[in-house]
Amino acid sequence: MKAKKLTAMALLVALGTAASMFHIPILGAKAFPVQHAINVLAAVFFGPGPAVLIAFLVGLLRNLLGMGTLLAFPGGMVGALVAGLIYRTWQRDFAAAIGEVFGTGVLGALLSVPLARMFLGQEATAFAYIIPFGLSSLAGAVIGLVVLKVGAFAWQKAGERSKV
């Protein structure tokens, strides 16, 4: 079972890293909605700890490959953590999506301000990243929910076909 879990986690890391080539510029920030979708999926499938690990590894690989910034760490990791914790509490897919949006869009954005000042030399106000992080995480959370719903529907249909 551990090999299957690690393989699935590695696939999410690979998908998040590969999808980093495609970003949407929002108010001077790079939006990576696929990362937020992955955070929702990881929170639902694996829980908060593994979700944070996946977000960290994607952020690390994006930075090593020159496709991301240091802001990937507070945004992605905090969003994954909050998504996992809220999903664990409510056991609902939409709860993970709400946790992702709040964790990344608000908490991760606020944590990014001192990071941007210290390491990126950017002057940023306390709310400079809330709109771009919030929009990116909202788009990604919706994508994650759609993937979960389509996957559940397909799984259900496959089960019905196997009974015939």
Strand line-up of the largest beta sheet: 1-2
Number of domains: 1
Could you name the CATH topology? Arp2/3 complex 21 kDa subunit ARPC3
Order of helices and strands: HEEHHHHH
The CATH architecture name reads: Orthogonal Bundle
Cα gyration radius (Å): 16 Å
Q: Overall mean pLDDT score?
A: 87
Uncertain spans, ≥5 residues at pLDDT below 50?
A: none
Estimate the global geometry from the Cα principal axes: globular
- Note the beta-strand portion: under 5%
* Secondary structure tally, helices: 6
Task: State the end-to-end distance.
Answer: 29 Å
The amount of helix comes to over 70%
| Alpha-beta content class | mainly alpha
Number of strands: 2
Tell me, what is the CATH class? Mainly Alpha
Brief sketch in words of this structure:
78% of the residues lie in helices and 4% in strands.
